[in-house]
Amino acid sequence: MAEEVLSQNEIDALLSALSSGEMDANQLKREENDKKVRVYDFKRALRFSKDQIRSISRIHENFARLLTTYFSAQLRTYTHISVASVDQIPYEEFIRSIPTMTILNIYSVSPLDGRIIFEFNPNIAYAMLDRMLGGKGSSVNKIENLTEIETTLMSQLFEKALDNLQEAWESVVEIDPILEEFEVNPQFLQLVSPNETVVVVSLNTTIGESSGMINICIPHVVLEPIIPRLSVHYWMQTEKPKNRKPEEYENITKGLESAILDMKVVLGKSTINLSELLHLNENDIIPLDQAIDQPIQLYVDDEPMFSVQPGKKKQKLAVQIIEELKGGNEDDE
């Protein structure tokens, strides 16, 4: 445990109090020997370390940025989403903290067990719906009278946002989130026992002129298999390179040997104007910038690779390789 360091002024004040009798040295010793008791509520079991909570916060900060870009493109209005807080609380407390009627999306996150909840504040949800239907993004709370079309539109919007969740978590685990349920009454949701610890990530959200919260509830049972990966040691460790097997090298070599390359030889270049081009006649000579006694270049996929000299082989035009070009075009050397 870190010790508190006193400043010189504090030391002088302490010595003055001891010498004047305002403070009893024996009393200080007794207080140091007294056991310090900290109250612990077993109903609020803290099952995640601060390090793991920071990792979850970092993942969802990335998710918030991705979600901001996605909703901005889909709704074509000003959108800003940021992480407000990350807390671990009992599931019962989470259910009590959200409105009686709200927008709830329940996702499975295979291959992880259990399901997670996205709670969209009605102000945000209806602002999104209004934008999708061509409105200005105003919010009208009519959550008890959602039509089938409105429910379908919201579900599709939230379902397409799952790609961002998958991308945000891919540094820790590859998940395949699927929207399973769309609910408006939290009392009908009993994913885990009331005292089960859940992580609640709250996102401050602004859509146009409307603002509210998006709450993500992740039960401990979902994260339990990957808890070791949420530590700082996992983030900082680097994977050792895996040695390839001989058969893998052989397959790569065969693949490269069968690759088809486009090769060409440029005899030289020249520049003429359009008038000269239009008046070209048979037997006219166009001088090139390539000297006859200088080697020419062979290009492989438009990259100069070799210096060559032209000739014939078996009555066919051919070139003979003189040297390999290092670092691209010889003019650049």
From TrEMBL:
Keywords: Bacterial flagellum, Cell membrane, Cell projection, Chemotaxis, Cilium, Flagellar rotation, Flagellum, Membrane. It is found in: Bacterial flagellum basal body; Cell membrane. Pfam families: FliM, FliMN_C. It is a peripheral membrane protein. One of its GO terms (cellular component) is bacterial-type flagellum basal body. One of its GO terms (molecular function) is cytoskeletal motor activity. SUPFAM superfamilies: CheC-like, Surface presentation of antigens (SPOA). Residues 256-324 form the Flagellar motor switch protein FliN-like C-terminal domain. GO terms for biological process: bacterial-type flagellum-dependent swarming motility; positive chemotaxis. NCBIfam families: fliM_switch. Belongs to the FliM family. This is Flagellar motor switch protein FliM. It comes from Aquibacillus koreensis. The gene is fliM.
